[in-house]
């Protein structure tokens, strides 16, 4: 079943992974639409940041801090 799902994907980064991701983090939902759709097909949870007029590095740091605090 998983091989069949992988065979229909368009993104080689996801198509040829040796194991599935635990979670995928994207910074721009519109730009990463294909990746988000394919993660959905495979059942990989995603975290999406809404683009805004903020510093990209600060946005990534905030997401990772929240993610780490949730895990630990």
Automatic annotation (TrEMBL):
One of its GO terms (molecular function) is structural constituent of ribosome. Pfam families: Ribosomal_S2. InterPro entries: Ribosomal_uS2 (IPR001865), Ribosomal_uS2_flav_dom_sf (IPR023591). The gene is rps2. Belongs to the universal ribosomal protein uS2 family. The keyword Ribonucleoprotein applies. Keywords: Ribonucleoprotein, Ribosomal protein. It comes from Apostasia shenzhenica. This is 30S ribosomal protein S2, chloroplastic. Gene3D superfamilies: Glucose-6-phosphate isomerase like protein, domain 1 (3.40.50.10490). One of its GO terms (biological process) is translation. One of its GO terms (cellular component) is ribosome.
